[in-house]
Structures are given as C-alpha cells and as structure tokens.
Amino acid sequence: xxxxxxxxxxxxxxxxxxxxxxxxxxxxxxxxxxxxxxxxxxxxxxxxxxxxxxxxxxxxxxxxxxxxxxxxxxxxxxxxxxxxxxxxxxxxxxxxxxxxxxxxxxxxxxxxxxxxxxxxxxxxxxxxxxxxxxxxxxxxxxxxxxxxxxxxxxxxxxxxxxxxxxxxxxxxxxxxxxxxxxxxxxxxxxxx
Length: 192
What we know:
With 192 residues, the chain is an alpha+beta fold. It has one domain: Umud Fragment, subunit A (Ribbon), CATH 2.10.109.10. 18% of the residues lie in helices and 29% in strands. It contains 3 helices and 12 strands, in the order αβββαββββββαβββ. Strands 1, 2, 3, 4, 9, 10, 11 and 12 form an 8-stranded antiparallel β-sheet that branches. It is elongated, with a radius of gyration of 23 Å. The termini are far apart. The active site is at 46, 99. It is found in: Cell membrane; Membrane.
C-alpha cells in the first residue's frame, strides 16, 4: 500500500482560516443588512391588530429602488423631525417607525366621521383596530411624499398628527413575520 503524504494543518493556518471565516460572515451579515433586508421588532401597539408588541419581522430594503411604494404596504421609515417632536421622542432619537401607506403622492386625503377618504372616495380598511375618532380636513399629498397611518388608528402617533413621509426616508417594506412562531407568515398588501 502506498504511503500517503497527509499533512496536519498547522496551528497558525487554523487561526487564519478561522479569521477568514469570521470576517466573511461579518461582511455578509452587514452587507445584507445594509442593502437587501433587515429585521425589526415591534415595540408598541400602534399597528395592532396586524402587528403585535414584540413581533419580529423582515423588511425588504431593495424593492423600492425599482418600484414605488403602494397603498397598503407596511413600511419601516426614519420619522421626519415633526414626528419625533409630536410623538414625544428625544430629538436625537434613532428609532424607526412602522406604519401602513394609506395615501400616495398627489392624492387628496381627509378623515370624516370615522372614515378615511382618498380623492373623495371612502377607503376600505378591513385591517384597522377601530374607526378613527378624529377628523381631518382635506390635504393634498405632495410629490414624493406618502401618508402613513397605524392600523390602531386611535393609539398611533402617525401621519394624522405630524404630516407626510418623504420617499427617501422609507427604509423598506415588511415582507414576513418570523416571530412569534405561531404567527409566522408573509404580509399581503391590502389595497382599495
């Protein structure tokens, strides 16, 4: 039987290989988070019943580079300064918000008698916790801006209090809830 020349790895090679593996793992993890997807947790009840406190979800950060946000999308965004102030957050807050897109650029939006109206037509919303107990006169959404509201309309610091969100502040759209395990599932867009 021929003698095989099997070499045992040298200890320094193991260290180098280990460092390469850790480095590649970190690069992939941060690269994915920076450009493709990111996980978020839900800290409040502003999106109930759709999202509950402590839900974990994955947000697609890529698709809005190729298509515009749509009504019904659940989006994570960096709140505008008016939102930080209206919601009582510290001025240096880095918190992201999550809400549902209700109004699109150029649309006229109003809230009357517990009903959201888009361009004078009632918006069907089977996902809200209860009808809004506030009224809002007609406002026109500027180009590149969106109206976002929480599904828990009466317990959400959202666009009805502080205005519109500019498109470049939108981080991405929620695509899947991965925790708790008994509520895992994809999000579908509710449009009217």
